[in-house]
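Today's session is about reading a structure prediction critically. Students often jump straight to the picture, but the first step is always the sequence itself: look for stretches that repeat, for charged clusters, for runs of hydrophobic residues. Only then move on to the predicted structure, which in these notes is written as discrete structure tokens rather than atom positions. Here is the chain we will use throughout the hour.
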Amino acid sequence: IIMKKFCFLVQARDDIKYFDKFKDEDSDIFFLTFNKKIEKDNYIYFPKSTWTTGRNKLLEVFYKKDYYEYYVFLDDDIRI
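Below is the predicted structure for this chain, in token form.
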């Protein structure tokens, strides 16, 4: 298994493009949307989720033991 350094887990209202720059050879990014379903592999839809339940669901679905060194939780309201 090749270990990557970062796994970015983002909660968002709907599809956001500017986070794509986080994905590279050393990191992956996954999304949970709560307002609109997005048909992409790295997205899950969890309507009416709260801040806490959304983060728990992201980790539950995308957690891979011994694959990522760090898990970083983000929300769609941050600006890069």
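Discussion point for the tutorial: The chain has one helix and four strands.
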